[in-house]
């Protein structure tokens, strides 16, 4: 995504997920596959962006974006982003040991509770983040020490409720800058995944309208269908352009900079609104066949709708964009937009 990534690496990622998907059809409830995780670990993909001195592969977010895109494109659900880009990154940043455990990250409220935590019930350890006495803290705890109520999102991925005893938690203090980075990284992760789903939806639509005929000619020859597909392509391209801009700025600025929050907010806003148009049009293009469980369309339309509301709703990110524009005022709005 944006930066040149080794083509052989991209092909290898795609081959791994394609091979897994061929042997493992989708299920209503998603669980982490230990065999796939082991394979990815052996290939150095589980901790793709981790520090090499701590057992990581030392890659960048560009390679990580390609990995996430490959997984989404083949309909494989696995906590690569939560483990590598969020939880293990946070441990590396705070100087805590990482090891081989599978992790996710959980931001607690003042009562020590959190909802919609991705993959908590199936992780080995959970990296907790909370605020206490005016300071943020981070702790790496075993899953068994937490009260976890399993839950699921729209596509059956684990989204659990977590309750922790903050009085017994021994967390390391961290600065606000690191917490801000966590928020932006979490937001951008979902934007990358939504974009990958939208691109796959576009591909399915093009395949459908070129292969299927109606009234003696392909669906692609009908102007109404062309308009629907062109809108899908436009919205998907806009979302991807905004996401790539945010990703490039993040990597170039080492996840800091005065306008980075705006760039991520724009990416999330564009991806969120694009999902509405793309999902609606895609199901119109496919008609009744697109609503069947046997057809793959729903794997990606439901995923886009589920992910766009995680780590901040569409409304939340819209408000971030609006606040930035209002703060800039008329005099600074153009420079804010153009960077």
Describe the structure.
The chain is an alpha+beta fold and 339 residues long. It has nine helices and nine strands. It has helices at residues 7-23, 34-42, 61-73, 80-94, 176-211, 223-252, 260-286, 297-307, 314-338; strands spanning 103-107, 113-118, 125-132, 135-142, 147-149, 159-163, 172-174, 213-214, 217-218. A four-stranded mixed beta sheet has the order 1-3-4-7. Strands 2-6-5 form a three-stranded antiparallel beta sheet, with no helix packed on it. A hairpin with a 2-residue loop joins strand 8 and strand 9 (217-218). Helix 4 (80-94) runs antiparallel to helix 5 and helix 5 (176-211) runs parallel beside helix 7 (260-286). The mean pLDDT is 93. This is Acyl-CoA dehydrogenase family protein. Residues 192-309 form the Acyl-CoA dehydrogenase/oxidase C-terminal domain. Belongs to the acyl-CoA dehydrogenase family.
């Amino acid at each position: 995504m944006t930066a040149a990534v080794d083509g052989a690496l991209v092909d290898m990622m795609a081959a791994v997920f394609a091979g897994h998907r061929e042997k493992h059809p989708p299920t209503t409830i998603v669980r982490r596959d230990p065999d796939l995780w082991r394979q990815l670990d052996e290939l150095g993909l589980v901790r793709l962006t981790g520090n090499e001195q701590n057992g990581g592969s030392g890659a960048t977010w560009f390679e990580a974006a390609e990995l996430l895109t490959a997984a989404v494109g083949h309909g494989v659900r696995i906590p690569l982003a939560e483990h590598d880009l969020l939880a293990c990154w946070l441990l590396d940043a705070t100087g805590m040991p990482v090891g081989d455990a599978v992790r996710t990250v959980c931001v607690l409220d003042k009562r020590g509770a959190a909802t919609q935590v991705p993959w908590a019930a199936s992780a080995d350890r959970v990296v907790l983040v909370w605020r206490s006495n005016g300071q943020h803290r981070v702790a790496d705890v075993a899953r068994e020490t937490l009260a976890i109520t399993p839950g699921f999102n729209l596509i059956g991925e684990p989204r659990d409720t977590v309750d922790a005893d903050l009085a017994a938690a021994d967390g390391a203090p961290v600065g606000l800058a690191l917490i801000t980075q966590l928020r932006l990284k979490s937001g951008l992760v979902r934007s990358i995944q939504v974009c990958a789903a939208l691109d796959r939806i576009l591909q399915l639509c093009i395949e459908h309208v070129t292969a299927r005929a109606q009234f003696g000619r392909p669906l692609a020859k009908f102007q109404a269908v062309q308009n629907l597909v062109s809108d899908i392509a436009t919205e998907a391209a806009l979302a991807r352009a905004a996401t790539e801009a945010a990703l490039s700025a993040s990597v170039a600025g080492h996840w800091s900079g005065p306008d980075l929050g705006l760039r991520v907010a724009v990416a999330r806003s564009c991806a969120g609104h694009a999902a509405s148009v793309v999902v609606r049009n895609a199901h119109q293009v496919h008609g009744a066949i697109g609503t069947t469980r046997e057809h793959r369309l729903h794997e990606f339309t439901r995923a886009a709708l589920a992910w766009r509301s995680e780590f901040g709703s569409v409304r939340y990110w819209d408000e971030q964009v609006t606040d930035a524009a209002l703060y800039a005022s008329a005099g600074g709005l153009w420079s804010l937009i153009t960077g």
